[in-house]
Write a structure and sequence with these properties.
- The chain is mainly alpha-helical.
- The protein has one domain (52-407): Glycosyltransferase (Alpha/alpha barrel).
- Helices cover 52% and strands 2% of the residues.
- The protein has 18 helices and 4 strands.
- Strands 1-2 form a two-stranded antiparallel ribbon. The protein has a two-stranded antiparallel ribbon with strand order 3-4.
- α11 (189-202) crosses α12 and α13 (240-259) runs antiparallel to α14 (268-289).
- The longest helix is centred in the middle third of the chain and has 22 residues, at 268-289.
- The radius of gyration is 20 Å and the shape is globular.
- The termini are far apart.
């Protein structure tokens, strides 16, 4: 108990040294399965990712403190795209947790600190006079990461959008609208443009229905069955369903339903129901892909995004829409096992505490032509379930073995069948 109190206090004050944090994030199975330790482990990951970014950026010093590594095959774009990637992707992953109400716990004090730093960082991000003004133009990459930037605001509007000053809000809206200059390629990029329009709709701003309409129609045209979407007209066997497609499609449709937006012939209520069913089926596949030791299939593009692949499981948990085939204790155990399989390697973070290009540690040759250390912060998307309070059944349910662990230890496990929705 004393150790847990020390850890919570240190997290709340941001005082943990890198070596101490690494110890706190250890992989002893017995310790992990102690009551509350799965959440403590994930909170440790969140703090380790967020504090080195939000602390400096809240003071306008991130670009001075963080010099992101570039992929060996870097395509020559302005390397300052890394800062928008880093901040936006981090915020999308931790926004659900930042939306939790305050209480008197050590976790809440950590939450309050990071939330205040995030608000200050949003201010710097759109202030042309700040050293941490982000690279909104001219690189098309800004469209990608603007969607994670606005997705975070949609996930925690009361905590991250409403407190911003009128000046910051106007600057932010102007930057998002200006990104309409970017013509997205016919792949998952359509969802980035649509996410920005959904955000504008949610705050009562002028929005472009056609960008949303096109994205929804094309993504559904590219559905290949059994919970899997193609990324464009050709199927890619990779993890982009987890990184982007399932979650963004669902969250865009949620805004359309919540605002009762009427602009075309789309039945958004039926489409949202369908999208959730497909994401639930995809979630079943994700859970089965996690091996008995927490390892999972390293397939396709953007492997360096690490555990971001499990975003759909976290979103389903946060929305209380996990299917009956995926009990909460089972999903929680599987997700943490996958996180531990990756983050047990110290070189996932550099000497200054920033994420490195790699998979199980620093492996820069795995980087794609667009990969930089800022890109890696999308791995925070595996922390979405922290948006559920510690008292929620997701955290209090007994730990359960996941499908592959059952299968390879001689236990009974459920069969698996194709679905037609």
């Amino acid at each position: 108990m004393q150790r847990r109190n020390f850890l919570a206090s240190a997290l709340a004050t941001g005082s943990l040294a890198a070596s101490t944090r690494a110890t706190a994030l250890g992989t002893d199975p017995a310790a992990r399965h102690a009551k509350g330790s799965d959440r403590s482990y994930m909170l440790g990951l969140l703090d380790r990712m967020a504090s080195p970014v939000l602390g400096p950026m809240s003071q306008g010093r991130l670009q001075a403190a963080f010099k992101p590594e570039l992929s060996p095959t870097w395509d020559g774009r302005n390397p300052k795209v890394a800062y928008l990637e880093c901040f936006a992707r981090l915020m999308a992953g931790i926004a659900p947790w930042l939306s939790l109400p305050d209480d008197n716990s050590d976790e809440s004090r950590l939450n309050s600190r990071l939330r205040e730093q995030a608000l200050a960082s949003y201010t710097h991000s759109v202030d042309p006079g700040s050293a941490d003004y982000l690279l909104w133009k001219p690189e098309p990459q800004a469209l990608v990461d603007s969607a994670y930037y606005t997705n975070a605001l949609l996930r925690a509007p009361k905590q991250l959008w409403e407190p911003l000053s009128a000046v910051t809000k106007k600057r932010l809206i102007d930057e998002i609208k200006d990104l309409r200059r970017v013509s997205p390629p016919y792949q998952n990029w359509l969802l980035f443009a649509a996410m920005n329009e959904a955000f504008l709709l949610s705050i009562g701003e002028q929005w472009d229905p056609m960008r949303i309409d096109l994205a929804i129609r094309k993504i559904n045209e590219w559905y290949v069955g059994d919970g899997w979407y193609g990324d464009g007209p050709r199927f890619h066997f990779d993890h982009y369903g987890g990184y982007v497609i399932h979650s963004m499609l669902v969250e865009i449709l949620e805004i359309l339903v919540a605002t009762n937006a009427k602009f075309n012939s789309l039945d958004t209520v039926a489409l949202l129901d369908q999208a959730y069913k497909r994401m639930q089926r995809y979630g079943q596949h994700l859970e089965r892909l996690i091996g008995p030791d927490g390892s999972y299939a390293p397939i396709g593009r953007s492997l360096t995004y690490r555990t971001a692949v499990f975003q759909p499981l976290g979103l389903l948990a946060w929305r209380k829409k996990l299917p009956a085939a995926l009990p909460e204790g089972q999903v929680r155990s599987a997700t943490v096992a996958a996180q531990q399989a990756i983050f047990r390697f110290p070189s996932n973070f550099d000497a200054n505490g920033y994420l490195t290009i790699g998979f199980t540690g620093h492996l820069p040759t795995l980087g794609d032509i667009y990969s930089n250390a800022g890109s890696m912060y999308i791995t925070s998307e595996s922390l979405v379930a922290l948006g559920l309070p510690a008292s929620d059944s997701y955290w209090t349910a007994p730990a359960l073995d996941w499908t592959s662990k059952k299968a390879f230890s001689g236990q009974p496990f459920p069969k698996d069948y194709y679905v037609d929705y």
